[in-house]
């Protein structure tokens, strides 16, 4: 049986600048399922990142409800939101915000210690996760500047999942990577999703979108398409690619 993890009701976000109001999200109703790898697509400026920030508590909506695991986070103040995010959300951005003066392991532990003060347990978990995603021991004491972009992003994913978040939110996580590094990072997302991790990922890239099992398409601040694509497999059938291609063509992508 499916379980909802995030539900929005009449979600609105309006930006005002210079006396001009821009309605970016318009009464948006959406239901995200626990364990899904949901992809958000849409043309540039359609409101994808704004939606991601609103449902993850990174930004407050102007109006509406964001029910996140039973709590309306739209009603929380900034301090409450910060605590909520720390406990429930993991973030992966195109720009990898690792701390340059800390080792790979310490970057992850710094994030983990915000929620769990059992350092011994955290070190073991961090090392297990790093091994799982193919970052071997000789890289653990390196500094971020000594890593490739793909390695740094994989470390960024471990940092995002160290606190066992209910949802990982990713905004163009492979946007700055070459094809091989991008594949490695996508493999990590696939791996953690198969372990039950809910993921919501914004992308413009079809190869990235194929890793999701559901594609939500935004146009001008509303959902205009919602495709159940089925789970990604290593020998991904061409029919699945076609299904996505046809859907995107219908959306005018
Ligand atoms: N903090 C802000 N202040 C004012 N306007 C904003 C702000 N954030 C976003 N916008 C505007 O909201 C609209 C939607 O932006 P958003 O980044 O959500 O789009 P997007 O679909 O993610 O675009 P892209 O694919 O180009 O990243 C844009 O017109 C943008 O200029």
UniProtKB/TrEMBL annotation:
Stored SMART domains: AAA
Top-rank lineage group of the source organism: Bacteria
Entry keyword Membrane: no
Coiled coil: none
GO terms of molecular function: ATP binding; ATP hydrolysis activity
Keywords, in A-Z order: ATP-binding, Nucleotide-binding, Transport
PROSITE patterns, sorted: ABC_TRANSPORTER_1, ABC_TRANSPORTER_2
Domain spans labelled ABC transporter: 6-245
Protein family (similarity comment): Belongs to the ABC transporter superfamily.
PANTHER family: ALPHA-D-RIBOSE 1-METHYLPHOSPHONATE 5-TRIPHOSPHATE SYNTHASE SUBUNIT PHNL, LIPOPROTEIN-RELEASING SYSTEM ATP-BINDING PROTEIN LOLD
Name of this protein: ATP-binding cassette domain-containing protein
Native species: Metabacillus lacus
């Amino acid at each position: 049986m499916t379980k909802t993890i995030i539900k929005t009701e009449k979600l609105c976000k309006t930006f005002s600048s210079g006396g001009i109001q821009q309605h970016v999200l318009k009464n948006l109703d959406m239901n995200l399922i626990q364990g899904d790898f949901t992809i958000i697509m849409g043309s540039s400026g359609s409101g994808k990142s704004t939606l991601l920030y609103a449902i993850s508590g990174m930004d407050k909506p102007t109006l509406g409800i964001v029910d996140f695991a039973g709590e309306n986070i739209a009603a929380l103040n900034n301090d409450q939101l910060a605590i909520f995010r720390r406990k429930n959300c993991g973030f992966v951005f195109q720009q990898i915000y690792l701390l340059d003066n800390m080792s790979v392991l310490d970057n992850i532990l710094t994030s983990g210690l915000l929620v769990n003060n059992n350092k011994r347990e955290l070190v073991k978990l961090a090392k297990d996760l790093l091994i799982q995603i193919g970052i071997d021991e000789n890289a653990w004491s390196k500094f971020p500047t000594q890593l490739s972009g793909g390695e740094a992003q994989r470390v960024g994913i471990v940092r995002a999942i160290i606190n066992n978040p209910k949802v990982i939110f990713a905004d163009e996580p492979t946007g700055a990577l070459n094809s091989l590094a991008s594949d490695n990072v996508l493999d990590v997302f696939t791996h953690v999703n198969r372990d039950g991790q809910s993921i919501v990922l914004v992308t413009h890239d079809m190869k990235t979108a194929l890793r999701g099992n559901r594609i939500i398409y935004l146009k001008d601040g509303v959902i205009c398409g919602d495709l159940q694509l089925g789970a990604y497999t290593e020998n991904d059938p061409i029919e699945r690619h076609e299904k996505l291609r046809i859907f995107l063509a219908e959306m005018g992508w």
